[in-house]
Every structure is written in structure tokens, then in C-alpha cells.
Design goal:
Elements lengths: L1 E5 L2 H13 L4 E18 L5 H13 L5 E2 L9 E6 L2 H13 L5 E16 L9 H10 L4 E3 L14
Antiparallel strand pairs: 1-5, 1-6, 2-4, 2-5, 3-4
């Protein structure tokens, strides 16, 4: 059973400590949760950083907001904006393409780290509806989700 979805570590740890005080074994888990999507307009540049800087200067002279991407898989390309809505990004992409620029649209997942407290299958029977009700009094919005048990067959033991 997974309890939580806490945005901060402190509250998840407080719940885990409460369960330990009740003699319920649990462990803290961190999960990356996709909270939405942003749309990034990127112009690839062939020829390395020197050509990218020349292209960047040309764009800025035209009054086009842009900057050089220096890290990650897009390093060496030019960023032409990040948009919360895909339709806005597409309109801007079309405007830039009309001006003769090769601009590509990339979807970026916005992720947030959240914390859950997992109660193992042996201790699961101790967390009944009455206990969940009491825990929700101290942890408003507490969610619970039943997890499937770990596989019985272990691939290391299968001949």
C-alpha cells in the first residue's frame, strides 16, 4: 500500500515515523510525477558553437528573443522560447518558419518530485479504514493506493 503523495520530504517522514510508532514497517519512496507539458522551440545549428553564436547574433539583430543552449541533449542549438500551450508554440513556430528559420517544437514534461510511504504486504493488514480515517485527520488529503504484490517468480531462480 502506498500512502501519500506529499510534495515535501518532512511530511512524508512524519507519517513514516507515526507508522513506526504503531509498529507498522514502512519505507519512504521518491517518485517523479509529470505535472504538465511545456513546448520548447529550438533551432538546430550545424557547424558548432562558433556558427551558433553567429546565428544567435543574427536572430537578436532581427529582434527575435533567443539564447544559446549550452547543456543537455540540445546543447549547441538555439532556444526561441518555451510555451505553456502547444497552440501558442505552433503559432510562433509558423511565424519563425515564415521568416525562413528552421524551428522545431519539442514537448518537455514538467516533473515534480513527490514522496510516498509504502507499507509492505506483511504490515498492510494493520492499516485498515479506521486507521486511514485517523491518519487523514492529521494528514489532510492523504491518499492511499493498493500496490500489486512483488512477483512470486524471481527470474534469477528460474531454470
Amino acid at each position: 500500500m502506498a500512502l501519500g503523495r506529499f510534495p515535501g520530504l518532512a511530511e512524508a517522514e512524519q507519517l513514516r515515523q507515526r507508522l513506526l510508532a504503531l509498529d507498522i514497517e514502512s519505507r519512504l519512496q521518491t517518485r517523479d510525477v509529470v505535472m504538465g507539458v511545456d513546448y520548447w522551440l529550438v533551432m538546430p545549428v550545424v557547424g558548432g558553437e562558433r556558427h551558433a553564436v553567429i546565428q544567435l547574433s543574427a536572430l537578436q539583430e532581427q529582434g527575435i528573443d533567443s539564447f544559446l543552449i549550452t547543456r543537455g541533449e540540445m546543447a549547441g542549438s538555439l532556444s526561441l522560447g518555451v510555451f505553456a500551450r502547444e497552440d501558442y508554440a505552433q503559432v510562433r513556430q509558423e511565424q519563425l518558419q515564415y521568416l525562413g528559420h528552421d524551428v522545431r517544437l519539442h514537448a518537455l514534461n514538467k516533473k515534480e518530485q513527490q514522496y510516498v510511504v509504502e507499507v509492505g504486504s506483511k504490515a498492510r493488514r494493520l492499516v485498515d479504514q479506521a486507521m486511514l480515517t485517523r491518519l487523514r485527520a492529521d494528514f489532510p488529503g492523504l491518499q492511499h493506493q493498493y500496490q500489486p504484490c512483488a512477483g512470486v517468480a524471481n527470474t534469477g531462480r528460474i531454470p
